[in-house]
Design a protein that fits this description.
Elements lengths: L6 H21 L30 H14 L2 H11 L5 H27 L5 H14 L8 H26 L4 H31 L7 H6 L11 H8 L6 H15 L10 H25 L2
The chain binds fe (ii) ion (2 copies).
The site of one fe (ii) ion (FE2) has 5 residues, from helix 4.
């Protein structure tokens, strides 16, 4: 049964989703200090850092470091989303404010963990952080709906990333696994907010699928701005997140969630976008299966 029949229904739905998110976050309040293995810390003055002190395998260190460096660019993501929703509904603008307060802990938690457990060189990490923030981040997206299609994919990608890496980390450090699962909970609630708004738009007007296809076609995680991102992702595959997980656990899940194959767009552009999305999914699933069987 259709619940979104007009613009008023859509606006009411977005307001309701924001209120639900506010209520949920109040019960999800957490503080990363409670998740740090402080007892493992030692002074860097008496015992300077050396790579031989690493306690985690390389693929896990790179996974944690890459997500930390990605989360770190928060000021630039905030700038983008704030500008994007500036003339839009108030709940969307408010969501960016609550979202930024939730995302803020993630990079801090991961950085503290890496330094405390001596899985990163503190001086080197500080240097890289400065480089990343100086480079910044921007997007070619210019429409609020396209941006929410992007953030739906990105937030779900992040949920799956943290959950899969948490599973892999369990054998090396259960504390790390617990921390990653806690971060994944925040990302899940961001994903829920964005994907339900996109769903409501598609319910109101299936031809808005024309906004979905270009985002899917060009999707790259925000960490893609790191110069060695592709090399990093190749290594991270071993820890549980790669192209196969993206397709099966992110892209396909969203295509099903938005009932893309069942939508009835009226315009030829809408029909074309629907066909392209479904063909694209099949094509990359075939490519991944071929690569796996090599
Ligand atoms: Fe995050
Ligand atoms: Fe998030």
């Amino acid at each position: 049964m259709n619940t979104i029949k007009n613009q008023n229904d859509l606006e009411q739905k977005i307001t309701d989703l924001y209120l639900r998110h506010q209520k949920q976050r109040a019960s999800m309040e957490w503080n990363f200090y409670g998740y740090m293995p402080w007892d493992k810390g030692q002074s860097f003055s008496t015992l300077p850092y050396d790579k031989s002190q690493n306690t985690l395998p390389q693929e896990l260190i790179i996974a944690i470091e890459t997500s930390m460096l990605t989360e770190l660019n928060l000021p630039w993501y905030t700038t983008f989303l704030n500008n994007m929703f500036i003339d839009n509904l108030e709940p969307l603008q408010n969501f960016v404010h609550t979202w930024v307060s939730e995302e803020d802990q993630h990079a801090s938690a991961l950085e503290t963990y890496l330094i405390l457990t001596r899985n990163a060189d503190p001086k080197e990490l500080t240097k890289v952080k400065k480089e990343i923030l100086t480079t910044g981040w921007d997007s070619i997206l210019s429409e609020p709906l396209s941006s929410m299609v992007y953030t739906s994919l990105q937030e779900l990608g992040t949920v799956v990333f943290y959950k899969n890496i948490a599973k892999y980390a369990q054998q090396y450090d259960p504390d790390l696994s617990t921390l990653l699962l806690r971060i994944a909970k925040d990302e899940s609630s961001h994903y829920a907010f964005y994907n339900q708004i996109v769903d409501a738009h598609l319910e109101l007007n299936p031809d808005l699928i024309t906004y979905v296809w270009p985002v899917i076609k060009n999707f790259k995680m925000p960490g893609g701005s790191l110069s060695d991102f592709d090399d990093r992702m190749k290594i991270i595959q071993k820890a549980g997140y790669g192209p196969e997980e993206y397709v099966n656990q992110v892209l396909e899940v969203l295509i099903r969630r938005w009932k893309i194959s069942k939508l009835n767009p009226i315009t030829s552009e809408g029909k074309e976008a629907q066909k392209n999305i479904l063909q694209y999914l099949e094509k990359i699933k075939r490519i991944n299966a071929r690569l796996k069987n090599r």
